[in-house]
Backbone:
């Protein structure tokens, strides 16, 4: 039965989403194609489109349509109720932020990104510190404009993962902090490290060819996606036009391959969201923790499995015969599954990766509750890195300046990665139960059953359930650390799970 009010709302939400996608495209282009001296021009473009987007998302007519629908007795969990609940939240966010604020924020994001990139090249935190200070102040202003008072960090978490906050995350991360460092030590002791410098001269064009084939096998739709190069790999766009990036190192092909599989995991989620509901909460990802669960599941549980490489190793050898002539299958798999604490998060293995996140969560909390001044951040970074990873960063570029997130004011995002790892492990064990013989599929280069299962349990649901409820519905368990610790023990301590 046609419902003119609901249809008008959906039309306006989709229009705002389309303008937002142009903003995303400009951001993608900025990191992939922009000439070095054109940053000012891009900042102007971003400012104008951001203000158009803001106008569309805060269109007073959306407010009126929402009020009209809210006055009805909507069945909880019905499509209309889901759309209204999320659209109300998004609308309040958009309409309570003054246009001046939105323009200032868009300009700062662009300026701070370029300041960060330059400071990182020079390995000089002091050049970036004022921009970080401004981003934190901006985040506080935003939280207070939206009625979160001084709970600015909880607001930041809620932006990425609706319904989660620092109090929910703290005990989960405390459990990881208790169990992971010991697990890392046992794993490092138990495993033989692969030979150093075993990869040389892997040309980027052939790496790209391998990646294109591998992602197509996983189910990525290249008719609606592409792969480019950026400093920091990411996935932008949406399911209708999915932009993946990676970066190529001729002496470490695994970097590009696993970055690409990771980003493709995000892309597969976007491409699996219901197309007809695109641009409305029914066709949007639930949050970043679940997004990261998709990228991490494909990257780690699938991409680092021996079965995956039983299928893909011959293809890699056919592209890189001379380069792999002296590399045994065992050494290749050892390199793929190497566990070694290092300074850089994006280079980290799936075990120590979580320790990088625990650090950033503690630092962000301290920055937001005023216990830590921006100027003291490098010192505190080093202290935590030594405590958790046993690593003293060589310089700012390998420490506090390594991540792009804070330059764009993306606070409260890092926890999503470790939460995503937990959810990925829970999904993995559930998938193994639900899909007998799943690992054998991978050895035959077949991934369709797993993708279909993820489509059904996660992708097709859009925002119908919040993160915590979705995890219970999909895995039968509340979000926790047990599955992740079990996965890491089983994979890296082949003798079997030890008490973790
Ligand atoms: Zn990711």
Residues:
């Amino acid at each position: 039965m046609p419902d003119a009010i609901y249809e008008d709302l959906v039309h306006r939400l989709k229009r705002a989403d389309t303008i937002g996608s142009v903003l995303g495209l400009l951001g993608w282009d900025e990191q992939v194609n922009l000439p070095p001296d054109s940053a000012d021009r891009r900042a102007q473009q971003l400012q104008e489109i951001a203000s158009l987007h803001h106008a569309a998302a805060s269109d007073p007519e959306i407010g009126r349509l929402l009020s009209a629908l809210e006055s009805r007795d909507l069945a909880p969990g019905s499509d209309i109720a889901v759309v209204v609940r999320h659209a109300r939240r998004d609308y309040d966010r958009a309409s309570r932020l003054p246009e001046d604020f939105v323009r200032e924020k868009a300009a700062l994001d662009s300026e701070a990104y370029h300041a960060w990139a330059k400071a990182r090249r020079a390995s000089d935190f002091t050049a970036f510190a004022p921009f970080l200070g401004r981003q934190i102040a901006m985040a506080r202003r935003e939280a207070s404009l939206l009625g979160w008072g001084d709970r600015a960090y909880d607001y930041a978490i809620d932006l990425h993962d609706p319904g989660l906050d620092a109090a929910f995350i703290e005990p989960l991360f405390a459990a990881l902090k208790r169990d992971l460092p010991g697990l890392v030590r046992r794993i490092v002791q138990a495993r033989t490290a692969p030979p150093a410098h075993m990869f040389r001269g892997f040309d980027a064009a052939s790496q790209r060819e391998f990646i294109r084939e591998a992602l197509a096998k996983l189910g990525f739709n290249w008719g609606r996606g592409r792969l480019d190069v950026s400093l920091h790999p990411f996935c932008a766009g949406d399911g209708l036009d999915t932009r993946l990036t990676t970066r190529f190192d001729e002496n470490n092909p695994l970097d590009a391959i696993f970055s690409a599989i990771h980003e493709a995991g995000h892309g597969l989620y976007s491409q699996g969201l219901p197309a007809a509901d695109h641009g409305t909460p029914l066709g949007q990802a639930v949050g970043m923790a679940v997004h990261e669960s998709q990228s991490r599941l494909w990257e780690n549980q699938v991409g680092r499995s021996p079965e995956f490489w039983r299928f893909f190793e011959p293809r890699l050898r056919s592209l890189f015969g001379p380069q792999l002539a002296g590399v045994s299958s065992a050494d290749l798999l050892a390199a793929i599954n190497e566990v070694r604490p290092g300074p850089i998060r994006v280079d980290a293995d799936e075990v120590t990766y979580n320790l990088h996140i625990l650090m950033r969560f503690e630092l962000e909390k301290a920055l937001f509750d005023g216990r830590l001044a921006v100027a003291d951040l490098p010192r505190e970074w080093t202290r935590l890195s030594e405590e958790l990873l046993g690593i003293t960063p060589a310089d700012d570029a390998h420490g506090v300046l390594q991540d792009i997130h804070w330059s764009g004011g993306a606070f409260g995002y890092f926890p999503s990665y470790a939460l995503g790892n937990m959810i990925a492990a829970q999904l993995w064990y559930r998938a193994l139960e639900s899909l007998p013989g799943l690992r054998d599929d991978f050895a035959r280069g077949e991934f369709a059953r797993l993708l279909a299962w993820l489509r059904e349990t996660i992708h097709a649901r859009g925002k119908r359930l919040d993160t915590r409820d979705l995890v219970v519905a999909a895995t039968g368990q509340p979000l926790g650390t047990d599955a992740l610790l079990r996965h890491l023990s089983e994979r890296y301590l082949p003798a079997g799970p030890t008490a973790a």
Observations:
- Residues 262, 266, 292, 295 surround zinc ion (CB under 6 Å).
- The chain is about 65% helix and 5% strand.
- The radius of gyration is 23 Å.
- The mean pLDDT is 95.
